Amino acid sequence: MKKFAGQSIIDKLSERFEASKQELTSNSTIADVRQKALNHLVENGLPHAKAEEYKFTNLTKALEKNISFEMNTERVSVSKEDVEKLRIEGLDAYYLTFINGEFNSEFSDEVTESGISFSPLSAAIQENNQLAGKLFDKLSKSTEDAFVAMNSLLANEGTVLEISANSEVSKPVFVQYINTKSSDIHAKNLIEVGANAKVTVIEKVDTLGAEPGFSNIVNEISVATGANAKFYKIENDTDTSYHISNIHVSQDKDSTFTSNTVALNGAMVRNNLDIKLEAEGCEAYMNGLYLLNGKTHVDNHTIVDHMMPNAYSNELYKGIMDDKSRGVFNGKIFVRKDAQKTNAFQSNKNILLTDDATVNTKPQLEIWADDVKCSHGCTTGQLDKDALFYLMARGIKKDRAMAMLLHAFASDVIENLELEPIQAYVEAIITSRLEK
Amino acid sequence: MLSIKNLQARIEEKEILRGINLEVKPGEVHAIMGPNGSGKSTLASVLAGREDYEVTGGEVNFDGKDLLDMDADERAREGVFLAFQYPVEIPGVSTTNFMKTAINQVREHKGEKALDAVSFLKLMKEKMKLVEIDQSLLSRSLNEGFSGGEKKRNEIFQMAMLEPKLAILDETDSGLDIDALRIVSNGVNALKSKDNATIVVTHYQRLLDYIVPDYVHVLYKGRIVKSGGKELALELEEKGYDWIKEEAEAAV
Ligand SMILES: Nc1ncnc2c1ncn2[C@@H]1O[C@H](COP(=O)(O)OP(=O)(O)OP(=O)(O)O)[C@@H](O)[C@H]1O
Ligand SMILES: [Mg+2]
């Protein structure tokens, strides 16, 4: 018998889809995608406890327990102050703010420079925007992940960004999702980076208040020939928030993509990052840092798929687990038969600060080409006792000495973050956690 | 200044120190010698506050305070300094930042004001000259990739920066070339005063030619089995440890 999980959630989602059908299916192309997503969910359900890809992270069970999945029509007012507190201090960016899944123009910046066009997803769908048709459920597919299906079924809002060829966007685009009281939000960002264009996008999801919230965000990012795109994900949500992210990237010839994922708080977070190097000469960088405490559970699943020759990928994920927190890392590297002269590197390092903290780490390399350079390594350990004693033997207090060692451990990932205000934000969190 | 009475310590059920007695007064230099594995580094580590060792008996008084009651960092702030036999490499921690943090925590403890960047750099320059250590070493991560001799020199540089009351040098001479031995010893001597004291752990007379001890003690199987003046070191150099071992075994 086939295992089926999440029936009650799927029932609710179907109801909601029926109730908002008119709005959700106004565009025939998208309507078709949504129907297929629903069919997929109804037939397959959500990941069950033993599902290979979710075996350490039983999101289905957590959602069943904590999230109502009721339609939320209640309007909660959010102040400018609330919104600004959740941004990154000192970071000059185009802020695009969504409250409970709806674009809020009052709190958002106008993106006026040439070479970049922004449209909220709802408007793009209404206007039959070609990009929406091209990317919606295309790179990340409903058939491959039940949460993508859930997103494709309900997401009617998000960010559609088009960077035209040869344009260099002058400052980062900061996509901010704020969830208040509502039980769940589903949003999609569709991003097309034109040939030789350059852009940095930052995404941060926050929940206001102590009630449990669920956010399900999909990014579909197409990076054209010679383009350079950077994507930051800052996860520092409340203790009762559940989050799933699917970032799917396709890279064309000689393009560069950098993903920076920083997970700092939440109840349960699952990040799926999937990068396809579809042409020659691509470079992909994946940096990850997870600094967890309390009962936070963060699962990073990454895939880099080398499909063509002469591409390079480098992945560095580091985690520090305190209290009863749990980290999961699964890094897949595929090197296809055609992908000769591939260079692919992966490293995952973890520090457990208590006996109750855990981490599950698994590299997974599948190589079909013969002329490749691949390396991977994972380590898990405690804070180096000898180093701690050395620092303390010079008069440095224990908390401070620990903070110095943890900063040192995380320093290479933090350096990779490039944007100074984000570095400062992360550094401050390491320090404040230890001085608690 | 330092008074050790019947100190006993063990690690993982293994008795290593079996009743150490030692009195160190301000201005004195004590040398501790003894065969490999006799417990010299253990004594140094226990005095510095390493937690791996379990103190099972005895007491240690430092300047009127119970040393064993303090954590390692507090002992250091009170003025105990251990130059490690094997200094630890700490990638990602810059030597300068480390030194600044340490100095200012020690100063804060003494009720002094934190050093600003300018005075700190001035102090660094002065002490770097004393032990002839190169700026380029200090701009690197702490001890990372340092040669054996460079690590030892860095230990003495740190000691010069922190100006401890009691310095314990654990085989600081091993790994040093002839010039470095002279430089490091001169550094140690320059820091000597009537108010501070030094314990040097060494295997060789050549260090004691430079840093002349007032007392020499021989540690064997976790006890000080013989003490004498500086001539004891010369005698050991000549005769080795066998006669001491025999004397010690006979006494049991
Ligand atoms: N972690 C440990 N577990 C078990 N035995 C230990 C441990 N650490 C030290 N010892 C033992 O304690 C004894 C004393 O070691 P210690 O390092 O103090 O000797 P030492 O006198 O400094 O020797 P050396 O001259 O070689 O530096 C040795 O027999 C050593 O093997
Ligand atoms: Mg030793």
3D architecture notes:
The complex is a heterodimer of chains A (436) and B (252). In chain A, strand 1 (94-99) and strand 2 form a beta hairpin. In chain A, 25% of the residues lie in helices and 39% in strands. Chain A has 2 domains: 7-279, no CATH class; 384-436, no CATH class. The mean pLDDT of chain A is 94. Chain A starts with 6 loop residues before the first helix and ends with a helix. A 10-stranded mixed sheet of chain A has the order 2-1-5-7-9-11-13-15-17-19, covered by helices on one side. Chain A has a 9-stranded mixed sheet with strand order 3-4-6-8-10-12-14-16-18. By secondary structure, chain A is α/β, with parallel strands linked by helices. Chain B is an alpha/beta fold. Chain B has a single domain (1-249), classed as 3-Layer(aba) Sandwich (Rossmann fold), CATH 3.40.50. Chain B is built from 10 helices and 12 strands. Chain B has helices at residues 40-48, 72-78, 95-109, 117-130, 135-138, 148-162, 178-191, 205-210, 230-239, 242-251, and strands at 2-11, 14-24, 29-33, 54-62, 65-66, 80-83, 90-94, 141-142, 166-170, 197-201, 215-220, 223-228. In chain B, helix 6 (148-162) packs parallel to helix 7. Chain B starts with a strand and ends with a helix. The A-B interface holds A 384-387, 389-398, 400-401, 404-405, 407-409, 411-412 and B 48-52, 71-73, 75-77, 81-82, 84, 87-88, 90-93, 97-98, 101-102, 105-106, 109, 141, 158, 162.
